Amino acid sequence: MNDNDRALCAATAGLLRASGVIAVWGLALALIAGLVLALTGRSLPAASWATFALIALAGLPERYLALRLRVDTALFEGLAQGTIASLPVLDHTLEQLGLRRGSEAARALADRVLGTRLAMQRHGIVVVLQTVVFALALALQDSR
């Protein structure tokens, strides 16, 4: 890898680390919704119960995407720091871990960065949806 590739990997890892705040918010929303359901679920109106359940359930794909982004952070950091020497070495390691099929074609670094950014966007969309539904759940509470 050349210096430009390492810089791109370092910048991508930094962006991923910064997006960790979004993951914390998504986890907090799911946990709060789960606690509300666990503590007061039987006394909630059906609409409120459904919104809190939706928030909690949206926490499942949110957690998956957050985990994937944490793995990507570590991989891009490894590429940037040189602990992962090259993309073929990374691909071989991912194959050994069962995270990549050996038959897949090699991907350029720019494609990997783009894929990671798309995963970040999907994660952000899930958390925004959780936030909107949480606000709706709070509004439904006030309308009692």
Would you write up a description of this structure?
Keywords: Membrane, Transmembrane, Transmembrane helix. The chain crosses the membrane at residues 21-40, 46-66, 124-141. α1 (3-18) runs antiparallel to α3 (46-81). This protein has helices at 3-18, 20-40, 46-81, 87-96, 109-142. The chain has one domain. The protein has 5 helices and no strands. The protein is an all-alpha fold and 144 residues long. It starts with a helix and ends with a helix.
- Which structural class is indicated by helix and strand composition? mainly alpha
Total strands: 0
Shape: elongated
- Domains (count): 1
The mean pLDDT is 94
Transmembrane segments: 21-40, 46-66, 124-141
Keywords: Membrane, Transmembrane, Transmembrane helix
